[in-house]
Amino acid sequence: MPGARAKTAPRDRARPAHTEPLVTPTPRKASLLPPPGTPLIYDPATDRLREACAVFGILGTTDAAAHAALGLHALQHRGQEATGIVSHDGDRFNAHRDQGHVGDVFSSPAVMDRLVGDAAIGHNRYSTTGESNPRNVQPLFADLDLGGVAVAHNGNLTNALTLRDELIRKGAIFQSTTDTEVILHLMAHAKGRMVDRLVEALLQVVGAYSLVLLTRQKLVGVRDPYGVRPLVLGRRGDAHILASESCAFDIIGAELVRDIEPGEMVVITREGIESFRPFRPVQPRPCLFEYVYFARPDSIMAGRSIHETRKAIGRELAREAPADADIVVPVPDSGVPAALGFAEGAGLPFDLGIIRNHYVGRTFIEPTNEIRHLGVRLKHNGNRAVLAGKRVVLIDDSIVRGTTSVKIVQMVREAGAREVHMRVASPPIRHPCFYGIDTPTQAELLASRMGEEGMASYIDADSLAFVSLDGLYRALGEPGRDPNNPRYLDHYFTGEYPIPLVDEEGGNRARQLTLLREAG
After folding, report:
1. Quick check: do 41-285 and 305-497 share a fold?
2. CA-based, 20 to 30 A from 343: which of 55, 114, 239, 379?
3. Which intervals of the chain are annotated as region Disordered (predicted)?
């Protein structure tokens, strides 16, 4: 196994039978509980790129599942379609998974009373439109020959179909087509202790992943060598915690210890923590969109406040693309920090010219053109008292297809704005993602079809400008983007894909989407 390890983790002992909510035990290399669908999705109702996964794990406290539920609640923004928790009580695994928000799925005392134990992992999911399926809710559980293992995964493997085909030829039986099940099958085919099997499995995969894994004795967290998706370590008393973002620690009174580093695996037992570096080191490339949009503003990522970073992007945007205007208005909620920074940098007043209704459920908005048109009105309304007669600078985090921008600009004009100048806190999105964001096709991305003048005309803005890629890097503390050694994953803007697109290059993309629809 390449790479150095700090220590050798103790061997997993045999595991007693698990509880009824989990799948029936299966022999090694047999079928496993099916995993969820596409890790990240594009929501056409809101014209946003959507984060679809949150992971959480805790070991070393009573009522671990209750702590996990609170942590998942804080991570609700990363996935609202379904949620699940698997706990371990020292004797058996217990699980509850269902569609819905965390507060609904885990509101019943009877449910929480069944999730006993001092260790638990959890997951939030945001499924593709129309493809919700209860059997696809994580964490996944498999009964391997060494005992049970539960996995929650945030990311996307770019060689999942290639590996799947190889595993099928070896006799594996798949119940779904998604990448998390591939990891479990690779572990089932591997040898050695559970942690060594996980390493062997991950050495075969290509792509982006941050995952937590629970065995009878261990909580494991691992981040891919590029560090595409975030994963952080926290502590509360004697308990150690893993989560997608640090905001999950605040809600349970835990403290942020540090980020899990790219390519690092941490193994947590009731005796302490061990750190492993089993993968070949590469230049880390964390996803830029975590800073622009995905992460919650009150999270800390790589030592940087997300809120302050977005304000810095807004200040850079004001420096690069000033507007002759009276007022700065954010497109809520994600545009607020950048709008604060823009207002500060431009010396203009900030106000809430658009009010968001936070109580519109996603299931209310069906994916038809007519309802998409109404969907923006359901979620946003122009504040006439603020906008009437004003020259307005609208600040948004991104433009994807542009359909929402069209409606927002129209709404602001109908509320009486004299001029509408759109400023965007990310560069134009011209290229699709294969690392966990289910973006529209390149032809559907507005910036891939027209320049800024054409886009301004399309959304009916008096002017339109984006922060430059160098400006975005400067807001993150870099002197600019080094084209020979870029610090972040920025393929949305550049078309550069540093992690090989194995399945895409092999022509498996269309087949993958078809299989996902069938699995749904």
Report:
1. no
2. 379
3. 1-37
Question: Which residue among 53, 247, 287, 433 is the active-site one?
Answer: 53
Question: How far are the Cα atoms of 66, 68, 78, 85, 112 from residue 71, in angstroms, in the given order?
Answer: 9, 5, 12, 11, 14
Distance CA 469, CA 407 (A): 26
Per-residue pLDDT reduced to its tens digit, 103-121: 999 999 999 999 999 999 9
Please check if 396 is assigned to a binding site: yes
Annotation marks residue 53 as catalytic: yes
Q: How far is CA 181 from the centre of its chain?
A: 18
Residue 250 annotated as part of some ligand binding site: no
Task: State the amino acid at position 45 in one-letter form.
Answer: A
Domain-wise residue ranges, the chain:
41-285, 305-497
Tell me: the pLDDT tens digits for 251-292?
999 999 999 999 999 999 999 999 999 999 999 999 999 999
pLDDT above 80 (res 27): no
Q: 204: which 2 tokens?
A: 């075969």
Select the more confidently predicted residue: 376 or 317: 317
Encoded tokens for 344: 């500060």
pLDDT band at 373 (very low <50, low <70, confident <90, very high): low
334 is in an annotated binding site: yes
Return the CATH architecture of domain 305-497: 3-Layer(aba) Sandwich (3.40)
Closest CA relative to residue 423, chosen from 349, 338, 361, 502: 338
Distance CA 120, CA 95 (A): 9
Q: Residues for the chain: how many in total?
A: 520
Chain centre to alpha carbon of residue 429: 18
CA distance 376 to 380: 6
Distance CA 335, CA 338 (A): 6
Asked, as a colleague might, if the bond just before 2 is cis with ω within 30 of 0, I would say no
The pLDDT of residue 365 is: 37
- Residue 48, pLDDT score: 64
Per-residue pLDDT, 507: 60
Cβ within 8 Å of residue 18, ≥6 positions away? 25, 92, 93, 94, 141, 143, 148
H runs (alpha helix) in 389-505: 403-414, 446-449, 452-459, 469-475, 491-494, 502-505
Q: How much of the chain, in percent, has pLDDT values that exceed 70?
A: 82
Query: With contact defined as beta carbons under 8 Å apart, do 39 and 155 qualify?
Result: yes
pLDDT at position 361 is 55
Burial class (CB in 10 A: 0-12, 13-18, 19+), 145: exposed
Average pLDDT estimate for 338-365: 85
Whether 244 shows a pLDDT value over 50: the answer reads yes
DSSP of 214-235: E-SS-EEEEE-TT--S--EEEE
pTM score: 0.86
